[in-house]
Fold:
Amino acid sequence: MSALTAWLERGVPERPTAWLYRAAYNRLVGWLRQDRGRGVALAGSPPLEDDEDDPASPFFDGELRDELLRMLFVCGDDALPPDSRLVLALKTLCGFGVGEIARALFTTEANVHKRLTRARDRLRDAAVELTSPALDVARARLPGVHAVLYLLFNEGYLSSHAEHAVRRELCDEAIRLGTLLAQHPVGDGPETAALLALMHLHGARLAARQDDAGALILLEDQDRSRWDQEALAEGARWLARSAQGATFTRYHAEAGIAAEHAFAPSFAQTRWAQIADLYAMLERLAPSPLHTLHRAVAIAEWQGPLAALAALADVAPPTWLAGHHLWDAVLSDLHRRAGDHARARHHGALAVDAAPTPAVKAALRRRLGITSDGAP
Structure:
């Protein structure tokens, strides 16, 4: 209300958020001074003026100064159901659609709707604090914030948007927020550094991931001279920083895999054995058949398609993966390279049919040698 009055008279200040913080701070101090029980303690405080200019920092010590980053921590409040926190952050703060969230989390749209409903119901019923949490509370919520930034970058790197296969602005925003997080005491640690290394190393290849028509270019076909050398160097610096201490997380493993790809002289000269080992470590850190699938891809380049198929022989994919295009795409490629063209055609057709966007469908057809009518 103070802003509506003052801004109509004098115009919107250059830093509206700072103005609001200062106005709220002044109002709170004024109220405390009028309170008899605290008047003596605050009697010596210097007077503060309600001015649109911000003579000092409008933030409190230890406060997260970016509004979006701060709200990501708010979404990690224990008052919200655990399975709804990530969905709420992606929907309300990152602008993801329900379908995009479902694909990012390998779940159904109906499940996403249920999680959002639970989160909104709890927000109405619980007194969720909308300011920066205390440092110890923020540290407990840090893994959830890392997960949001990871998914935000992934959506930019390979978008589920029908018209935009790559959305650089999402990658840039994830890196911006991650950098701010690393500059704050709560996020200044090996895990944040590893996540930033991962994002910079993948982000370095964005310019080479699409041709002039917007079609996706697979890693083995990319022009490595177009990779951003400055971003690669920045990724290497964050990777070195992430190695300080004894912490090793899934982001360390994934950043290591990204580094192997980023600094290999060529696709053929990539150290596939090391990548397979890193995926094995990732499987132990964060067990998932999706990691096993990716390890099989590395084994195929290292030891051949039959060894890769053997690595997948005992894997019974859960429903969410069995119907995903990645599972059938890998099986189609492995069977094709192993000479089993019937199985390759079968899995290839399933993969193209399940692909979420036209860009991914087109990339799969090129990779698997399938024409637009499904014929090999």
Remarks:
- The longest helix spans residues 135-157.
